[in-house]
Prior knowledge:
The chain has helices spanning 50-63, 79-92, 144-154, 259-269, 290-304, 349-352, 395-412, 515-524, 534-542; strands at residues 7-9, 29-35, 68-73, 98-104, 108-111, 122-127, 141-143, 160-166, 185-186, 232-236, 245-248, 256-258, 287-289, 312-314, 323-326, 341-345, 361-362, 371-374, 379-382, 387-389, 420-425, 432-433, 438-445, 456-462, 468-472, 491-495, 501-510, 546-554. By secondary structure, it is an alpha/beta fold. The chain starts with 6 loop residues before the first strand and ends with a strand.
Amino acid sequence: MFSKALWRAGLSLGALALSATGTTARAETRALLAAVWQYGNPMFQDLEGPANDLPAMEAIVRSQGAKDVTVLRNDQVTRTSVETALHALGLRSKPGDWIVFYYAGHGTEAEAAVKGTADGDYDQFIPLAGFDPDAQDTERFIVDKDFYAWMARYIPPDVMILMIADTCHSGTMNRAVDPAASRFVPRMALRGSRDDFKLVGRPAPRFPSVLPPAAGAVRTIAPVDRADLPNLVFIGAAQDDQLAQESMLPASGAPWRGVLTYAFEQGLRQSPTDSKVATADLDHDGKVSVSEMGVYLDGRVRSLSSQLQKPNTTYIAGEGDAVLFVTPARLKPPAGVALPGLYVTGQGATALGAGGNVPWRLATTRDQADFIWNSDDGQVFWRTGDVVARDVASPGVLRGVVEKWNAIARLDALMNEKKVRVTIGPKPNGARYAPGEQVDLALQYDGGAASTAPLYATVFNLASDGTVQTLYPASPQDGEGRLGPDGTLPVVSTAAVAPYGADHVVALVTAQPPTALRTLLASIDGQRLAARVIEPVRQVLAGGGGLSINELFTGP
C-alpha cells in the first residue's frame, strides 16, 4: 500500500512505443501452425498448454477465412517439415497475402558459434520432440537464425508474415517466487548455464529462393536480423531475459494454456463489454491493427502473469496500422470471473468451511489452488508463487484479498492502453519494494497530434487486502485532475507501507471528470471494498477513454 504523504512534480507525457502509420492490403490468409508438447526425453518436461493452444489458433485463422492451413504436432515438427512448409507457402502466396506462422513449445538458449554480431552472443532455439543435447540431431532443433533465413529466402517481400512464438527466450526473473505455491510452468528447457551448451552445425537452406534472380545477378541471403525483414510482424511471448509461462487459465480447473496464446485468443474472440468489437480492437473500428495487438498483448500478458512476462511485438515503421484481423461477426460476451480455488493451511483451515457467499471455492490440494493461505503466518500466495498479501489473520481480511483479485480480473477486460499507461518506478516493472522505499507513479498519455480537447486523469490503488485508496486527484491542488495543454500530468511519489503484498494501481483518462466515480472513491477510501469499483468504472469507459492497470509488489 502507499504512504499518504505525497509530493508531486511535472512529467512530460510521451507516446507509447507502438505507433505507426500505413496500411497493407490483404488478399488471403495462409497459415503454418506448429506445436510440441510431448518431448519423449526425461530431460524435458512435457507441456500441457500447446495441446489446447494449437486448436485455438487454428480456429482463429480459419475464422478469418484461411483455407490454406498446415498444422504440425509433436514429432511431425522437424527441421525439414517446417522449412518445407514455409517454402511451399511462399510458392503459393500472392502479393498482399498474409502468412501466419505460429509455434508453441519449449524454447531456450545456447552459446552462439559466432559472437559479437548484431544478433547477440547467444542463439535462441527450440528443441523439438526427441531432441537429445548429448547426441544432437539437426532435425530435432531449429535456431532463430534459421527461421529468419527461411522467411527471407522463401517468402516474397510483398507477402506479409505474422510470426507468433509462444516460447521462452531465456531463464531469468526479476523477483523470487515460492515454487511450492506456483502453478505456472515455464516453457523452457535446459535450465543450466547457456555458456556451457553449444549446438552442432546446422544444414544450410535446402531450397532455392522463391524469387528468381535478376538477369546477370546472383541472389544471396546473408544472415538477417529481425528488423531486416520489412514484411515481418513478430510477436514473442517474453523478453529475452524472461520465461514464457503456461497455466490453467483463467483459473484453476480450466484447461492449460500458454499465457500469450490465451491472451491473443481472448483479444480476438471476446468483447470487452456488450459491444460488437473485439477486446484487442482498441479504437473500435472493427479491425485489429498491428499496433493495437501489440499494445493489447503487452497489458494483458503482464496482468495474467503478475508482471513476470512481457511480450515483445516488433515491426518496421509504417506497418503499425496494417490490419491483422477483422472482428468476426460472432464474439463471445464478456466472460464471467471463475471462482478461484483456495487452499488453506494451519489453524484457519477448519474455520472457513465450504458454505456461505464467498468469492472462492475450496481446493483440496495445492495443485488445484489459485490462492494458498497459511493462516498461521498470515501469508497468501498467488498461483505465480508470489506472496500477494501478508498479515492476513482472519477470513474477513482474506475475503478482501480474493475480492480484489476477482475485481482486477473483470477490470482487465476493459483495459485500453493505446493512449494511457500507468507505470511504476524507479525499479524495473514487477520488482519488489521494501517497506519505506520510494515509489513513483507516472501516467503516460498519447492523445495524437490532433487532440486538443481537455482530458482528465483519475488514479486509485487497490491494496493487497482490497483496500481502496484514492491517489489522484487527492487534494485541492490537484483540481479536477486535468491534463495540461502541453501534455503534462503530476508524478505521484510516495513510499511502500503496510499492508504488504501486491497492490494494483488503476488509472483512467476521460474526456470529462468522472464525478460519480470520484464520489464513490471518496466514500469508500480506506475500506476493503474493491468489488464496488467495477461497475462504476465500466460505466465511465462506456463513454470512451482509456484504462491502465499495473501491479506493485511490496514487503520485506
